[in-house]
Specification:
Layout lengths: L8 E5 L3 H12 L4 E5 L2 E5 L10 E6 L13 E3 L3 H10 L3 E8 L5 E6 L5 E6 L1
Parallel strand pairs: 1-4, 5-8
Antiparallel strand pairs: 2-3, 3-4, 6-7, 7-8
């Protein structure tokens, strides 16, 4: 029996690491730690020991191609409406408007500065 959540870490592909880090910093207030790991330029999202959830990085590299296809990452937000307005002000696009998922809250999707589809969740 496996008692841990299955996902531990994520990576978001970027074409321009500085532009992407500025986008996510402006959108969510994240402070990034920059690193080169396995030859890839990375901006590491904040990580807090013993905190719920997972962390990851923005990554630039040959095999990292921004896309709207594929897996969806859901970032928590206290206010989807305000977050989507910020996305638009930062040059992003709303791809899927705020939608109720019943007792699980609300979701929406946006295109980030790199062309990725990123999702939001509000409880």
């Amino acid at each position: 029996m496996h008692l841990n959540n299955p996902v531990r870490y994520f990576e978001i592909p970027v074409a321009d690491l500085e532009r992407a880090a500025a986008f996510y910093h402006s959108l969510f207030g994240f402070e990034f730690e920059h690193a080169v790991i396995d030859g890839h330029d990375m901006a590491l999202f904040p990580s807090h020991d013993n905190a719920a959830g997972i962390t990851g990085a923005l990554v630039k590299g040959d095999s990292y191609v921004p896309s709207k296809a594929g897996a969806r990452l859901y970032f928590h937000t206290e206010d989807i409406d305000a977050t989507l307005l910020k996305v638009l002000s930062l040059g992003g696009k709303v791809l899927y408007p705020k939608t109720s998922i019943g007792g699980f809250g609300w979701v929406a999707e946006f295109e980030d500065s790199e062309g990725n589809c990123i999702a939001l969740h509000e409880e």
